[in-house]
Each structure stands twice: as structure tokens, then as C-alpha cells.
Specification:
Radius of gyration: 26 Å
Order of helices and strands: HEHEHEEHEEEEHHHHHHEEHEEEH
Shape: globular
CATH topology of the largest domain: Beta-lactamase
Helix content: 25-40%
CATH architecture of the largest domain: 3-Layer(aba) Sandwich
Distance between the termini: 90 Å
Number of domains: 2
Number of helices: 12
Largest sheet: 5 strands, antiparallel
Number of strands: 13
Length: 427
């Protein structure tokens, strides 16, 4: 006969097993795995997350979607106005390749931040929007990260000078490697070029990125009239630089263009001087811009004057854009300068068979001690009938580092040539 103690112990054990099983099932239900994220509650009515597809109509499932794409899904999934299906403008495979390339170049060359943006210049659809950071920051560097731009500002200074008729495209300015300016104390300040370029016109000045040329047309030098800081601010703002782009997701930062008021507030009432205008003319000194701002701005150049509103959503029917008041001839001159950059200038690493593009490089001083730099590249493709604008940026690398954004772009365009040749043509 089984004793009462044995029966009682058996019942207790069974109850414990049942309680543990119930607790385990409850825990599993309350903590969904990544594979079950698609079943999370999204609206009060259907309690399901919308189905999400990339621009090639490939479903994006959390269990198989790499982090870089899923982060963008997270940005838009709670928008109740989008219904039960979300069609992103992002190319999932390109997104992940660009991220991997950005990380590889950044880590190999000691950059701590990075971003990549590729956007349709007509619709504003983003086919790639990548952010990289070695820190735990949740800031999206493409839309929220603020960085000094360096020489990628120069095409916009050039078209402003043409609009103001202060220089012709053919006029040559002599660069011997630097210019000097006497300060208020009678001492000479030296403003360097990165090399002595000799006599150069506007197209070549953009292509080889001459500082001396842009000091002259920005602030004035000898017989060359300059734009001055007020006009520089006005024209850069026309291109949306230092302003929000209007993208709905992710969040974005506005940034700033340096000006006399900014300097007085930041430096205890110090007045603006010609030296400040020189530095502003080459993209140094007080700027704070986002990669998506610069992508939108270069889209304005590529499209002969239309600024699209960026979007992560596929929108083939309606889109918003702003027109710019420059002549077609002025746009063409600047675009030819950016083409020169790829063929014979600072972006010649991108010259490859089967790929036609225009670009402008930039190296910016990231700190006052000149220990860190930002490496930039902006541009568009294909050259003759532009379809996409792009920005690649690597931030806070060591001073003097020569490998940077051009290397990222070279990898990406080789990948596009092999895997998405349709992006490189405009039928």
C-alpha cells in the first residue's frame, strides 16, 4: 500500500511542475523573440505589426532582416496612418552592403563615426540611409549627426558667385599655395591651400578643390570681389544647408552656418572679420551640417534646381520639392567642375569603366586642436541624366588620414555595377 506521505509528495511535485510550466509559458508570451516581433501589437484595432517590404518588394521580417534595415523599420512601424503594409524606399541589400563597407573603412582607419545616404533626386526616396558609431549613442548620424563639412561646400559657393556676377567661369585665379592677410594688430595671417595649383578657373578650382580660389570669391582678394558672409549665408540656406530637410522619420537636426551673430554669442562678443569669411568659404569654422542635408543640397545641383523632401517610404505618385533661382548655365558649370573632380581631381579614385558620376570631396577640421578630421564625399549619378544623389561621411579620424569617404564610395559603386546596374543608368 502507498503511504499518505508518498501520495502527498507526488501531488506537491506535480503541482510544482505545473506551476513552473505555466510560469515559463507566461514568460515566453510576455517576452517575444526577435522572430515574433512581427506579431507585436501595432494598433488598437488589429494588434499586428504591418507587413514591411523594401523597394524591390522583398518582405522585411525581423528574424531575417539585418539590424541596419530593421532600425529603419522601427522608425516607421508605429505610424498608424500607413495601414497594414509599409513599402520602404530602401534597398535592403544595398543598405547592408553600404553599412558593412562604412564599418570596414572606419575601423581600418580609426574613424569613430560614419554615415551614408543615397536618394532619388526627383522623388526624395531614400534607397539607403546608414549610420555608424563606435559609441552607444542612439543618434542617427545621417539625419541627426552634426559635422563640419569642409570643401563639399565649395560647389555652392561657386554657384552663388556666378549668380552675383562677381566672376566669370573662365577667369583664372593664381594659387601659389597660400594667401596672407594683415590682421587688426598689423600681423600677417596665412591662409593655406593644400598645394600650389597655379592659374585655375572655376571648373578646375572645384575639381582640384583649391582653397585660394574660394578664399578669393568668398571673401575677396586683391582685384577679385568676394561674396561676403551675408550672401554666403543666404545662398547656402537656399540649398537647405543648416536647416531641416522635412523628412518625417527618423528625427533630424537643423545645424548652422557660421555668421556674425553666431560668433558674437559663442565667443563673448568677438566681431566677425574677413578671416572668418575666408574659412567659411571653404567649409571650415563653425558649420554644423547633417549628411542628409548635404545629399538634398547636391540633389538640387544635379536636378538643375529642385530640392526634394527626403522620405523612407516608397512614393511613386506624389512628392514635394522646392525650386532654386539659378540659371541652367550656372548649374552646368558647377556640374562640370564636379565631373572634373572624378576624372582628374580629388575624387579620381571613383573613375571606373561603366560608372559615370560627379562628386566633390571634403576634409574638415573636426576639432580646434587639429587632431581629428571628417572625410566627406557628395555627388550624383549617372552624370548626364542624374537619378540619385549621395553623401558618404567618416567622422573623427586621425589628422592626416588620407583614406576615407572616397574608399567607401569606391566599394559601393563597384557593388552597384555588379549587383544593381539599373541604378547606374537612367532609361
Amino acid at each position: 500500500m502507498i503511504s499518505r506521505k508518498v501520495v502527498t509528495a507526488t501531488v506537491v511535485i506535480l503541482l510544482l511542475i505545473l506551476a513552473f510550466s505555466t510560469f515559463k509559458n507566461t514568460e515566453e508570451e510576455s517576452t517575444p523573440s526577435k522572430a515574433n516581433l512581427a506579431k507585436e501589437e501595432n494598433t488598437e484595432s488589429d494588434h499586428t505589426l504591418p507587413q514591411v517590404f523594401d523597394r524591390r518588394n522583398i518582405p522585411l521580417l525581423s528574424s531575417t532582416t539585418p539590424t541596419q534595415v530593421w532600425q529603419l523599420v522601427e522608425e516607421v512601424k508605429n505610424n498608424k496612418d500607413l495601414g497594414n503594409e509599409i513599402h520602404l524606399s530602401i534597398d535592403g541589400e544595398l543598405q547592408n552592403y553600404l553599412y558593412d563597407s562604412l564599418v570596414k573603412v572606419a575601423e581600418s582607419n580609426n574613424y569613430t563615426e560614419g554615415a551614408g545616404v543615397i536618394m532619388d533626386i526627383t522623388t526624395g526616396e531614400l534607397i539607403s540611409l546608414v549610420s555608424y558609431s563606435q559609441s552607444d549613442s542612439k543618434v542617427n548620424n545621417s539625419t541627426q549627426g552634426l559635422f563640419v563639412p569642409g570643401s563639399i561646400i565649395k560647389p555652392f559657393i561657386a554657384i552663388a558667385a556666378l549668380k552675383e556676377n562677381i566672376i566669370t567661369p573662365q577667369k583664372e585665379i593664381l594659387s601659389l599655395g597660400s594667401i596672407s592677410l594683415r590682421d587688426q594688430n598689423g600681423e600677417f595671417l596665412i591662409f593655406k591651400d593644400w598645394k600650389a595649383h597655379g592659374y585655375i578657373d572655376m571648373r578646375k578650382a572645384i575639381g582640384v578643390s583649391s582653397n585660394v580660389y574660394f578664399y578669393a570669391i568668398g571673401g575677396g582678394y586683391e582685384d577679385q570681389e568676394g561674396l561676403g558672409i551675408e550672401k554666403i549665408n543666404r545662398y547656402l540656406e537656399l540649398f537647405g544647408i543648416g536647416q531641416e530637410t522635412g523628412i518625417k522619420e527618423p528625427k533630424e537636426s537643423a545645424g548652422q552656418i557660421p555668421n556674425p551673430k553666431w560668433k558674437e554669442e559663442k565667443y563673448n562678443g568677438n566681431k566677425w572679420r574677413l578671416a572668418d569669411t575666408y574659412l567659411t568659404s571653404i567649409g571650415q569654422h563653425g558649420y554644423a551640417v547633417t549628411p542628409i542635408q548635404m545629399t538634398r543640397a547636391v540633389a538640387g545641383l544635379a536636378s538643375f534646381g529642385y530640392l526634394p523632401t527626403p522620405t523612407l517610404l516608397s512614393s511613386n505618385t506624389t512628392f514635394e520639392k522646392t525650386s532654386l533661382p539659378f540659371s541652367l548655365e550656372s548649374f552646368q558649370i558647377v556640374k562640370e567642375g564636379m565631373k572634373y573632380s572624378v576624372v582628374n581631381g580629388t575624387a579620381s579614385g571613383l573613375y571606373m569603366e561603366g560608372v559615370t558620376l560627379a562628386a566633390k570631396t571634403g576634409t574638415a577640421e573636426a576639432d580646434a586642436n587639429k587632431e581629428k578630421i571628417h572625410s566627406w564625399l557628395i555627388g550624383y549619378f549617372p552624370y548626364n541624366e542624374p537619378k540619385y544623389a549621395f553623401t558618404f561621411m567618416l567622422g573623427y579620424g586621425p589628422w592626416g588620414e588620407e583614406t576615407g569617404a572616397v574608399s567607401v564610395a569606391e566599394n559601393v559603386f563597384k557593388w552597384l555595377k555588379k549587383n544593381r546596374p539599373e541604378y547606374l543608368t537612367n532609361p
